[in-house]
Amino acid sequence: MSNDSTAPAYRPATRLLHAGLERTPFGETSEAMFLTSGFVYDDAQQAEATFLGDVTHYQYSRFGNPTVAALESRLADLEGAEACIATSTGMGAVSSALLSHVKAGDRVVASRALFGSCHWIVANLLPRYGVETAFVDGGDLEAWQAALSRPTAAVLLESPSNPMLDILDISAIAELAHRAGALVVVDNVFATPLLQKPLELGADVVVYSCTKHIDGQGRVLGGAVLGRKDWIANTLQPFTRNTGNALSPFNAWVMLKGLETLALRVGAMTGNAAAVADHLAGAEGIARVFYPGRPDHPQHELARRQMSGGSTLVAFEVSGGKAAAFAFMNALRLIAISNNLGDARSMVTHPATTTHMKISAEERARLGITDGVIRFSVGLEDIMDLKDDLDRGLAAVRAR
């Protein structure tokens, strides 16, 4: 898309197709894939000037690559961020955002409701390097205020959270965090760039597992970190370049193709998720349903203010604990059992024994992740087929 200030202000679905597209002299319609580890120079002087930073020239695909740069440009355009760095995985994005920013003696405050690997980084990895960490209940603003009454280097949160779809007040938390001097990092995977804009709500950095909705078809791994240009260039980029957390050009190209249909997929999947949540609510064998788009969600009004849709995921609790949850899942014929999410195909997982199994039972209980909880990533199948499959699961629970 043109950088001309007089160019039309295209809407997200259009930008997903055209932003960051730079054609080679061959005039290809699809983005070129530059599967190359390195680049050559016209002469030794150009190589020296490149390494000095005096000229702009690709050096090595761990540092930068035209295909990866196209993905970064498109993601930044969609997010409304000044800059983006793509990483090898979503956890690579989270870990790089934190480790590049903090040092021994610093302090990190995080929401208690985090994906299992994110929780491990805060609870186990950062303290190994002399970083003090603290967890708070994400929905308790008084707890945030108390935790952020001391100088803090970074804050990490998810909203909606994995797997219970808790909604956190990003604006209020960001205001408290900034008073404490903290960089606010928001994992926006469950909302996608289309349903929520954390930077507009006061966050400093947004992280994604591009493996999820951005690829959206279960093909490749990748992540992204987005934020201010100065922080990306001076803090994050030296870390990712020198530690090797680089996205492959092939994966970047696949994700560029995924972005072209993101708006269509997320819109349809969100509609299906809302219908699934309504179908499960009140059904015999279901104790609770958690979906931000439903009025009975504890933070429904906050979700309406922060998000333009209810997410593509639904969490629900099956009556009867682990045995009942397993019976439900094993009875499904269409919906796959997988710990991935954001895929075009519907998937369920049992967080207590998969994504959050390394978190203590006590901590899971505080988060509401009982042995009966199932996380459902709703796909693009016909909604009637999904309802029929869910009814198979419900019948298996009732038959126990």
From TrEMBL:
The keyword Transferase applies. It is an enzyme of class 2 (transferase). Homotetramer. Its cofactor is pyridoxal 5'-phosphate. Catalyzes the formation of L-homocysteine from O-succinyl-L-homoserine (OSHS) and hydrogen sulfide. One of its GO terms (cellular component) is cytoplasm. The modification N6-(pyridoxal phosphate)lysine is found at residue 212. The gene is metZ. It comes from Nguyenibacter vanlangensis. It comes from the Bacteria. Pathway: Amino-acid biosynthesis; L-methionine biosynthesis via de novo pathway; L-homocysteine from O-succinyl-L-homoserine: step 1/1. Keywords: Amino-acid biosynthesis, Methionine biosynthesis, Pyridoxal phosphate, Transferase. One of its GO terms (molecular function) is pyridoxal phosphate binding. One of its GO terms (biological process) is transsulfuration. Belongs to the trans-sulfuration enzymes family. MetZ subfamily. This is O-succinylhomoserine sulfhydrylase. SUPFAM superfamilies: PLP-dependent transferases (SSF53383). Its EC number is 2.5.1.-. HAMAP family: MetZ. It catalyses: O-succinyl-L-homoserine + hydrogen sulfide = L-homocysteine + succinate.
